[in-house]
UniProtKB/TrEMBL annotation:
It is a multi-pass membrane protein. Gene3D superfamilies: MFS general substrate transporter like domains, Multidrug resistance protein D. Residues 21-474 form the Major facilitator superfamily (MFS) profile domain. It comes from the Bacteria. InterPro entries: EmrB-like, MFS, MFS_dom, MFS_trans_sf. The keyword Membrane applies. This is EmrB/QacA subfamily drug resistance transporter. Keywords: Cell membrane, Membrane, Transmembrane, Transmembrane helix, Transport. GO terms for cellular component: plasma membrane. The chain crosses the membrane at residues 20-43, 55-75, 87-106, 112-134, 146-168, 174-195, 207-227, 239-256, 277-300, 312-333, 342-359, 365-385, 406-428, 448-470. NCBIfam families: efflux_EmrB (TIGR00711). The lineage of its organism: Bacteria, Bacillati, Bacillota, Bacilli, Bacillales.
Length: 478
């Protein structure tokens, strides 16, 4: 298959296997998204076998998130500079090897190192995969359909983590949540060279290493500061020091980029209001969804007393709604434009979250949770697809990897901030009620209600941002 630049017209004969290629790209994205959540269910078993305390178990998650979020911009730029297919295959290979190493871990240090290597590899493959998609599908209608599938897969990966983690851990042991990545990765590596031809590296793609070091260290410090707030508090020396360091590093990154001959992230990219608005929306979507899936999983297991398997199965209606609406989004966008579609999706997401906030401590799934879950799935499906398309709209071909990395970075950082802010509010609410001798189930439920309402506020703010920032006429059709 030949990858064509957006300025050329594609013909069916030129790219006959592009839909098969999309399956391979989407599978890789599925693994990246899945791995951020599937490990949660396995943490107790991991801690027991490797003798890890609560603090170290938290680092099993953080060791993956830190390099992933911190290196996404650099990964996107590297894929522009050295070729998207090449970096995609390298990222998948690294992710598969690191996953095997994690499954074989015999100590906490071994596992954390493997998780960090998974995060580094994910930062290479994720932006390269989305960049390949935008280059393969240059026809507006085909690209809309492809992004619909992409958004559905990303959403399913988020929702399926609890279900697959419970099944694998209970039946095959905790190592299986890592081993499952290996055969899928091998299949992707074996098929991609036959489905996607080599693309030409861009000599224009800058590799400003001082800027790369500054932004990577700055984002890492920011994520580390936010990830630790629930454990050490917002005003602890650790949080304040890391936050101050993040501010200094990110400020220096902006100064370096303004002066660099070949900037890592050309600030002129943000003159494109669709890119700016789309990334702000994805930042807020990440903040809402990361906290949502965490709170919903814990609410079902700690308050409603669902086991891991049942908690996972109850997320199937949400995943089903997400898949169904993602397939319909291209037609909606064609009729109403990306701007309106994204704003409406965010408002539907907010409505579902507000509805979910009314669930009591003795909720019945069919009565209190099914309806909100379906509405949330509809909102998420529309938001993922139209948000991604908005964030990469109008980007030059040699900056596709950069724009794709920026989308993923926005979502990851938004998730870290949303998780930190909303879980802190939830904990304060729950602890306050417990001190007033309120029963634990009711106190926990009230805390989770705060999370759901806070996530709804993120979604509403995202809709406002889109309507205020993204121009209407230029985004009428994709």
């Amino acid at each position: 298959m030949t990858i064509l630049a957006p300025s050329l017209k594609a013909t069916p004969l030129a790219i006959p296997y592009r839909w098969w290629a999309l399956i391979a790209l989407a599978l890789a994205q599925f693994l990246v998204v899945l791995d951020a959540s599937i490990v949660n269910i396995a943490l107790p078993a991991i801690g027991s076998e490797l003798r890890l305390g609560t603090h170290m178990l938290g680092w099993v998650i953080t060791a993956y998130v830190l390099p992933f979020g911190g290196l996404l911009l650099l990964g996107g730029r590297l894929s522009d500079r050295f070729g998207h297919r090449r970096l995609f295959i390298a990222g998948v290979a690294g992710f598969s090897i690191a996953s095997a190493a994690a499954g074989l871990a015999m100590s906490g240090e071994w596992l954390l190192t493997a998780r960090a290597l998974q995060g580094i590899s994910a930062a290479l493959l994720a932006p390269a995969a989305l960049a390949l998609l935008t280059k393969l599908f240059i026809d507006p209608q085909d690209r809309a359909k492809a992004l619909g599938i992409w958004g559905a897969v990303a959403g399913i990966g988020s929702a399926a983590g609890v279900l697959l983690g419970g099944i694998l851990t209970s039946s095959l042991g905790w190592s299986s949540v890592f081993y499952v990545n290996v055969p899928v990765g091998a299949l992707i590596i074996a098929t991609v060279p036959f489905l996607i031809s080599k693309d030409s590296p861009s000599e224009r793609a800058g590799l400003n290493m001082s800027g790369a070091a500054a932004v990577t260290a700055g984002i890492t410090a920011l994520v580390a500061a936010l990830s630790g707030t629930e454990r050490v508090g917002w005003t602890s020396p650790q949080t304040l020091t890391l936050a101050g360091l993040a501010f200094l590093l990110l400020s220096s990154f902006i100064l370096l980029e303004r002066r660099a001959a070949n900037p890592l992230l050309p600030l002129t990219l943000f003159r494109n209001r669709s890119v700016t608005g789309g990334n702000l929306a994805m930042f807020l979507i990440g903040g809402a969804t990361t906290a949502l899936f965490f709170a919903l999983s814990v609410y079902m297991q700690q308050v409603l007393r669902y086991d891991a398997m049942k908690a996972g199965l109850t997320q199937l209606p949400m995943a089903g709604a997400l898949v169904a609406i993602a397939g319909a989004v291209p037609a909606v966008v064609k009729a109403y434009g990306t701007r309106r579609s994204l704003a409406a999706s965010l408002l539907l997401l907010a409505a579902g979250l507000i509805w979910l906030s009314f669930a009591p401590s003795d909720a019945a799934f069919a009565i209190h949770l099914l309806g909100p879950s379906i509405l949330i799935g509809v909102g998420l499906g529309g938001a993922f697809v139209s948000g991604t398309e908005t964030a990469v709209h109008g980007v030059a071909d040699d900056e596709a990897g950069l724009a794709s990395g920026l989308v993923n970075t926005s979502q990851q950082i938004g998730g870290a901030i949303g998780m930190a802010v909303l879980t802190a509010i939830s904990s304060a609410r729950t602890n306050g009620l417990l001190e007033q001798a309120v029963a634990e189930p009711q106190a926990l439920t009230s805390g989770f209600t705060a999370v759901f309402l806070g996530a709804a506020a993120f979604a509403i703010l995202g809709a406002i941002v889109i309507l205020a920032v993204v121009p209407g006429p230029q985004m009428r059709r994709i």
